[in-house]
Amino acid sequence: MDCSNFMEHVFEYLDGEMTESDCATFARHLRECPPCLDEYQRDQALKARIRRSCGCEEAPVQLRTQIIASFTSITIDYGR
Questions:
Q1: Chain mean position to CA 55
Q2: b or e along 1-17 (b: 16 or more beta carbons within 10 Å of the residue's beta carbon)?
């Protein structure tokens, strides 16, 4: 795994959204690459800080609805 690929998927790793095999590959890369380990630790600390700061607040219903709708809609750009 190269570092750019690692950085593209680090939040998937942090959020537990990877297969067991991919997690093992990421963990191996972290052991072997100090710069990526530093970045991972920064991202992990950021997520923890956000969780502590915003954990007690719930997003407004309208915002949650818009976010969910964006996941299920498809936009096609025909070069207009």
A1: 17
A2: eeeeebeeebeebbeee
- CA 49 from chain centre, in angstroms, equals 15
33 within 8 A of 6, measured Cβ to Cβ: yes
Q: Using one digit for the tens of pLDDT, what is the confidence trace for 15-48?
A: 889 999 999 999 999 999 999 999 999 999 988 8
**The 3-state secondary structure of the chain, one letter per residue:** CCHHHHHHHHHHHHCCCCCHHHHHHHHHHHHHCHHHHHHHHHHHHHHHHHHHHHCCCCCCHHHHHHHHHHHHCCCCCCCC
Return the structure tokens found at 44: 């992990």
- Measured distance between the N- and C-terminal CA atoms of the chain, rounded to whole angstroms: 38
